[in-house]
Structures are given as C-alpha cells and as structure tokens.
Write a structure and sequence with these properties.
Layout (H helix, E strand, L loop, with lengths): L11 H4 L2 E2 L6 E2 L10 E4 L2 E4 H9 L7 E5 L12 E5 H11 L16 E3 L5 E3 L8 H5 L2 H12 L4 H8 L3 H8 L8
Antiparallel strand pairs: 1-2, 3-4, 5-6, 7-8
Helix pairs in contact: 6-7
The structure holds zinc ion (2 copies).
C-alpha cells in the first residue's frame, strides 16, 4: 500500500469532516449503529471508507470488501484498509473475534475456543466445554430454572432474575442447553 495518500487530494466536502491529526483518519459526521461512518455521496448513502478509497486509490473491484486493518470503526484512512474477498474478510474477522456472539464467552482464554478443519472458530463453552461453562450456570441453577418454569413461572421473569438471556432460558427449559439430573 502506498503511503503517500493525502487528504488534500479529497474534495473539500469530505476533507473538512476528517480529522487526520492521528494515524487514523476520524470521520466527524454521521455513523451507523455499529459506528461506521456514512455519507450521502453520488446520490446514495455510502460507507465513507469506501468513498475515500475509491477517490484516492481507485475503484474497488466487484465482490471485494475493504478489511479494516486498524479495527477502528470511525477510521476512513485508506492506508488502514485492504481490499480482500468476502471469504478472506470473514476469516480475518473471525480470527480477531475475542468473544462468542451468542453469550459473549471470553475467547482470549484458549480453552474457550476451538477451530474447525476449515479454519473457522467456534465457542467451546456454548458447545458444552470450555472453562466458563460450569462457572456461569451451575447444575443447581439449571435445575432451579427448569423446576420453577415447570411450576408455571414465565421465562421472561426467570431470565431477568438469573440475568440470563431469554434465548438461553428457552434452551435451558427445553433441555437443549445442558442435560442434568
Ligand atoms: Zn485507522
Ligand atoms: Zn459461547
């Protein structure tokens, strides 16, 4: 990646909203819910990092995505992005993931994460192993939830009391989460 990309080559309407005082170019404008900058450009709302890349580097080939190398959502610096295929982008995102999406188990502990032969990782805790499993929801907790649900208590109330997601409560009461006595 060339390092002589300069903001002064950008149209003023974009440049005036970018803070390039640090290594990352921070967008001062509208962001989506995930924190990625968007701008109305060429008649439609577009991610700013793609607009900036197109203007300074060139067109993004069909099917390619820009990998956010610095993993800083508001950054639109093209030097901090790389055009890669969707598959490669997904692989890298998975590689950088530090917790599982389902229950947020800690993947920085290697005992909580396993790797499939295809290289994709999955949560060892959610799949019945790993360190956080027993710790988080003991057999006693699971039994108590099932007993009280069987006695008529609502899943939503149990979820709140035990501070467990409604999805997990549903799996617990349906016997899908863990089989205990
Ligand atoms: Zn950056
Ligand atoms: Zn998990």
């Amino acid at each position: 990646m060339s390092t002589n990309l300069t903001m002064t080559d950008l149209p003023a309407r974009l440049a005036e909203r970018i803070d390039a005082s640090g290594a990352c170019w921070t967008w001062d404008g509208w962001h989506n819910d995930a924190g990625y900058p968007y701008v109305h450009w060429d008649g439609r709302d577009q991610p700013v990092h793609r607009v900036v890349w197109t203007l300074l580097v060139g067109p993004i080939a069909d099917g390619l995505e820009l990998d956010h190398l610095c993993v800083n959502p508001p950054c639109v610096n093209p030097a901090h992005h790389e055009a890669v295929t969707h598959a490669e982008n997904q692989r890298r995102i998975s590689e950088r993931q530090t917790s599982c999406r389902r229950e947020g188990h800690d993947w920085t502990d290697p005992r909580n994460v396993r790797t499939r032969p295809n290289g994709r990782r999955y949560c060892a805790v959610c799949h019945g192993g790993g360190r956080g499993h027993e710790k988080k929801y003991s057999d006693a907790t699971v039994v108590a939830i099932r007993t009280r649900h069987a006695a008529g208590e609502r899943q939503v109330d149990l979820a709140r009391e035990f501070d467990i997601s409604s999805g997990l409560i549903s799996r617990i009461v349906n016997g899908k989460y863990r089989r205990v006595a």
